[in-house]
Design a protein that fits this description.
Distance between the termini: 28 Å
Helix content: 25-40%
Structural class: alpha+beta
Radius of gyration: 19 Å
Strand content: 5-15%
Largest sheet: 6 strands, antiparallel
Length: 266
Amino acid sequence: MESNISNELGLKFPPIVLLKSDEKPENARGPKPGRGGCVMSFVALTIAKRITTYFGRENITCGGISSGFGWGSGLPSDDAVDFQATFLSQGIDSAPDKEAYQNKLDNMPRVSEMFREGERIFCDFETAKANIKNRPIYDEGEYVIFKGIEELKEDEIPKSVIFTLNPLELTILIQLNTSFRTKDTYLQTPQASSCQSIGCFVFKEDESDNPKPVLGPIDLAGRAKTRHFIPDEYLTLSMPWKLYLKLEELSKNSVIQTHLWKKYLE
């Protein structure tokens, strides 16, 4: 499938799609058996190199990826929630029980300084904990598959369509997205990990009659896994399939065809 938006804008990175499946895809690149890591390195490979990649439940090693791709909360106990809230806020300085947090770090084979000082996505422990509990939670499918939209088959319906855009391209997508709306917020910018901004928060928007795209990534840890392939100034704009189809249709008679836009291409 071709994207009119991508073709008309001449996007360096055409959109990719996220699919859910119970079957591990053939001829796709994924983690080695028994290994995990950050899924964003695989997502970046699909975005930049157009290689189909996948990630499975059995590869989960990160506290946020379970909710990110609709594999439950990934947090089986209150202690697990507290640990992640501590990590996502001020690290050991924000831990309700500093000794217990340090003991867990001591028993982790590979601990970076980030765990001690915290990722600082949230300003304090309580804010982090409230946000963790408010994440959209789904539980279906064994694998997520990422492929270029040009590889999408007619019978496949993505769970998320992911654009990777520089600031000027993002301007056009935002204008398309707002061109048919009359009120309310037009973009979602949840305080979320990179995988959640292309996954569960998009899944949630798909439940709405008036879905909005999700802007990301805003976590530096996730971005660190994509820098080898994607320049720092690029952002993702992810959306449900039905919104993508609407923007595709709108793009055929839009600002993209004006002389005003074409001046930016000179």
